[in-house]
Amino acid sequence: MLDWLKNINKEYPDFWKTYLAKFEHKSKRYVVFSTETSGLNPDKDVILSIGSFAIVNNKIHIGDSFESILLQYKYFHDNGLSNEFILESKMKKLSEPEAIHAFIDYIGNAVLIGHHVDFDVDMINSALMRLDCGRLKNEALDIDVMYRKLIDVNDKQFSLDELSEIFKLPKSYRKSPSEEAYTIALLFLKLKNRLGIK
Amino acid sequence: MNTIAENIADFLKEYPPFDNLTFQELSAIATSIRVLNLEKNETLFQINDKLHDCFYVVASGVIHLSVIADAEETLLNKCHAGDILGLRPFFAKNNYMMTAKAREESIIYAIPIVTFRPFVANNPDVLNFLLESFATNTWNPKEKENLRGKLANDNVFYIDQKSEMQYFQSLTYNRLPLTATINDIAKDVALRMTENSSTSVVICDNQLPIGIVTHTDMCSKIATGQFPLTVTMKAIMSAPVVTVVENVSLAEAQLLMLKNNVTHLCVTSDGTDKSTVKGVISEHDLIIAQANNPGVLIKEIKRSSNAKDLKHLRERLTELIQNSIHKNIPLSNINNIASEINSAILKRAVELSILDLGSPPARFAWLSIGSQGRKEQLLLTDQDSLLIFEDVMPDKYRDVRDYFLKLGKKATAILEKVGYELCPNGHMASNMLWCKSLTDWTKQYDSWMNTPGENSNDLSSIFFDLELVFGEKKIFEAIENVILKDLDHNTLFFDFLGNDALRKNSPLTFFKKFVLEEDEPNKDKFDIKTRALMPLIDGARLFALHFNIKGLNNTYQRFKQLAIIDAKNSDIYLNCAEAFLTLSKFRVSEGLKNENSGQYINLSELTKLDKEKLKNALAPMKELEELIKSNFKLTQFS
């Protein structure tokens, strides 16, 4: 319970201090992101790749993006998996500390958007813990929750595919986190408008 | 490396002008793209908005471009996926001249001008495409065809277009009028007028119009000897001059000329004689503007030599209809004009086929049935027709029939190219069943009408809405008389038709809610054709046959006529006539909006007022139903 007291004197990495300092101002930027993970347990599983885009003024800025593959050598080695498919990809490859560092720099104080975003945030938080940082401070919005609010349904979850179908978005066949993030971004714009969020 | 940028580049490279650029260039452009989502009816930019710093490409959905003339909104163009809009910032500094509005929920790519400009500068093909798009008038469907696939739909300034709705279009006029001062001498001015082949000269004082001298003035004042050749303009000019604003419509200009009894109008920047002269509208300009009217369309149809020409003309008819509806011209008038033009197209299609096949070996009649037979075909619906040829000697019969079948096939194929789909039930003259000799047709009608229950599967009530398109009037009259004769005291047949008319499902539920479609692809839409229009059409036909109304096939006119003949029920008929027009209008608007047959109305798109209007238009149907029930004893088939 007194964990935070313990942490108060703890020395954070520099990038984390910069990150914390950004929260003095409120942001008008949204960052939509999605992660690909090795499994569903935030404690044991790791992030394999991240894709994200920024939304400013109701516009998705394609250039303002972050995507990377995380080279999880240790995880693959420990679990006896092959990492060939990662090496084949043309996306930028970073080690987990590098990638998380860059991602934190990228999101800054933006509001995070995701699909079942709690899980993505948990995954990032676990990775941050390994780097001796605190938890993400960003506000996070979940498009599934937004949609359920829109249609006033509480007892059902909607997958990204279902939402794409409902809003008649074209389905992409390859499912990279970047493509997921883009789809989430479009859904977010539509939902934001319908819910009247300014 | 940016996956989505590459996906967007992949999309762009399919469309001009981006197809002139390399994939690397497109990827670079794509990284600076911003993606927007437009709700339905959301405005992207409107007239007089400051220019945006980007132009737009439609990724999905439909954007409508429109301009406003005479306080009326006119649709210029529909942009679909891959179309470019908002090019104005490339070429001009002043504000937008049109409004871009999402017709349905759309996703738009915004490409910053700064990013794209270098590619324009370095690539002449891209520049040419943009210039062409910027300058071209896409309103004319003929040009649209020529430029399809390489043209962005934008930046048409309304003065340049020739929209088909003559009286409400803006005028093209002389924007560089001849001017003179009050001290100029008549002879000099006359020489200048002759040189410039101008019929008028505006007399200006410091750019402001104070009078005008026209041919008439020269004739009546100089040539008569009333004034000498050396007289100054001051003495002979007509003043003050009648001035108008820049985007005046044909109708307005005409009225002003009549009202003021003048032949020329002076255009000034604010419409008064206290501002600078912008041009002169002469009577001749009005005549030119009217060249693009339905009469001309029919003339052009008569001259056309292939299916492609006819297709262009049919597209112009669609524009005409669309504009007329926009301008709230009564639907019955539009119906008349459209059906005349439609008939001309059908007739020309048969003529072209005859030119191809050689003269027919016997006299014949080509009849339209169904909606064209009733002169109610505004949208491109399917074609229904039949062919009757005169009786010939048995030894010739085969050849003759073969010729007419060939003729039927050829003509329907031409019409299919024009855009009239083939009838799914095969109700066409190319079908052996509906291309027969007069005797066979007489037998056919006899059997349909005297024993309607027995062979009813191929009896469709559309066979009783006939119109002669081409051929012998006598044959047509002969078949009309057969029908008339068979109608006499034929309660059985009326029973059949009456039941047929009542069989349609009711449009409203018990709780006065619209009955919506339950299955995809038209789920939750209202089937206005089967649930609302067909019962009225069937009812009108039934009563028209019952009261022996000949020559009137149009549902609206049938009801009007019925109100006169069957005076005690005239209220019901008149209500039905109005309801029919209202419902047709809903259908046509829907069809034009979505470029389909308009059969299914999306109720969620209607305003509350429109919904009420639609509901009210359904009310007379119930009365008509009761009337049918009480008039005909519908027992044999129910």
Low-pLDDT segments, ≥5 res of chain B: 136-168
Categorize the overall geometry of chain B.
Answer: globular
Total strand segments of chain B = 20
CATH fold group of chain A: Nucleotidyltransferase, domain 5
Distance between the termini of chain A: 37 Å
Q: Assign the CATH architecture of chain A.
A: 2-Layer Sandwich
Radius of gyration of chain B: 30 Å
Largest sheet of chain B: 4 strands, antiparallel
- Please report the total strand number of chain A as a whole number: 6
The total count of helices of chain A amounts to 9
How is the CATH topology of the largest domain in chain B named?
A: Beta Polymerase, domain 2
- Quaternary structure: heterodimer
CATH superfamily of the largest domain in chain B: Beta Polymerase, domain 2
Radius of gyration of chain A: 17 Å
**Largest beta-sheet details of chain A:** 6 strands, mixed
Describe the structure.
Chain A: This is 3'-5' exonuclease. Chain A: InterPro entries: Ribonucl_H (IPR013520), RNaseH-like_sf (IPR012337), RNaseH_sf (IPR036397). Chain A: One of its GO terms (biological process) is DNA metabolic process. Chain A: GO terms for molecular function: exonuclease activity; nucleic acid binding. Chain A: Keywords: Exonuclease, Hydrolase, Nuclease. The complex is a heterodimer of chains A (198) and B (638). Chain A has 198 residues and is of the alpha/beta class. Chain A has one domain: 2-Layer Sandwich (Nucleotidyltransferase, domain 5). Helix content of chain A is 43%, strand content 21%. In chain A, α7 (143-151) runs parallel beside α9 (177-195). Chain A is globular. The mean pLDDT of chain A is 85. Chain B has four domains: 3-157, Jelly Rolls (Sandwich); 179-290, Roll (CBS-domain); 308-479, 2-Layer Sandwich (Beta Polymerase, domain 2); 489-638. Residues 136-168 of chain B have low confidence and may be disordered. In chain B, α17 packs parallel to α18 and α19 packs antiparallel against α20 (528-546). In chain B, the strands form six sheets. Chain B has a four-stranded antiparallel sheet. Chain B has 638 residues and is an alpha+beta fold. Chains A and B meet through β3 and α9 of A and α1 and β1 of B. β3 (59-71) of chain A pairs antiparallel with β1 of chain B, so a sheet runs across the interface.
